[in-house]
Amino acid sequence: MTQPRFALPETTAYALRNARVPRAFLGGPAPEGAEADADGGVLLDITVEAGRIARLAGAGGGAPDCPAVDLAGRHAWPRLVDAHAHLDKGHSVARTPNPDGDFPGARDATTEDRTRHWDAEDLRRRMAFGLACAEAHGVAAIRTHLDSQEGGPLRDQAAVTWAVFREMRAAWAGRVVLQGVGLTPIDAYATPYGARLADLIAGSGGLLGGVTRPTGGLHGGALAEIDALLDALFRLAKARDLDVDLHVDETGDPAAASLDAVARATLRHGYEGRVTCGHCCSLAVQPPEVAAATIARVARAGIRIITLPTVNMYLQDRARGRTPRWRGTAPVQELLAAGVAVAMAGDNCRDAFYAYGDHDVLDTFRAGVRILHLDHPLDRAPALVGPVPAAIMGLPEAGTIRTGGPADLILLPARSLNEVMARPHPDRIVLARGRRVAAAPPPYEALTGEVAPW
Ligand SMILES: [Zn+2]
Fold this sequence. Notes:
single chain; alpha/beta; Urease, subunit C, domain 1; eight-stranded parallel sheet; four-stranded mixed sheet; 12 helices; 16 strands; binds zinc ion
């Protein structure tokens, strides 16, 4: 039996009929007459005009007379949002591997790779590769952290990296939205370099970021000066009107409690709703009453949490010759139950912190649902890779399918969330502004300038 090939009408106005859209992506109530199925999937006719969604109606509800494709109940998702990535580290694993796959090894290998290789040309090539992967997989926006610790004697790494970031953001505008966060061990903000970095970030339209561990140190234990260091960071952010995005408690040590300190600092500085925290692993291994008190404070401070499940599974609880006993992830279900905005993102990609990945948010979603048990029912899970990360990035149109929004879609050969979850879907069809994105993920040879054999 031959299958019909998918062909998008050539016209600027067309309809996608019988598209099944997870309710979590609608950004509001379903159109009248559209009923949700058991997974929260809503059967819709989507009318596209000049690259935008002109109309959403219940399937068969009298869509305008224009060329149409019948999706026959297959899923239509928005292009997805990766609110926590590291494009500057990506695709360095072959030349500077992490010998043991653990956190200290990742930190040391990254320092070596950065010191040896990260000139503008190297950053440009690896960042462009990552962006091309993301675009092909249907990613609309990426927030990337950028290593910004004070440079060594030979180069000012932050200046080099942020210049390449600004160049890439401009070059990819209209294809993948890029945001940058300055990443440095938090003690830098108590030194004169902290103010210089904050100025560089402000001049680049970025966010103030950092990691709640000391330079050269690890997450874990209680960082004695954490309150003073956070005060220094928040003062720099406030003076420049910068939002804050931190790497917090990426450890299974229950004594690590920076998240509560960040929540207190957020409230102390009146920065509610402007702070995002990634990882927050130790929260899952603290006594329940301690974790509950922190979660309540996080909710009160309007802190958004980003869980990075694939990288947590890789780094946490790793010891050579011993099988890991815990998953390493933040207590996402408890955070959601407390009303905290939680997004899921990819984090590292083929570097010393995570050896795998392809900047594919759908792949992260499929893994993350399994790791975090965000299923049974599945209906709320899609929000973690669509509207929630879009709101964290301040992109109200991204990650949703709504009237007036961009026709940025992923069409999947799956009729239920179970079928979405079951296969990796390299056969997905990505639309940007209503037109098909023809790009495929770049060949690995593009990283080394070699010619791909096919
Ligand atoms: Zn990260």
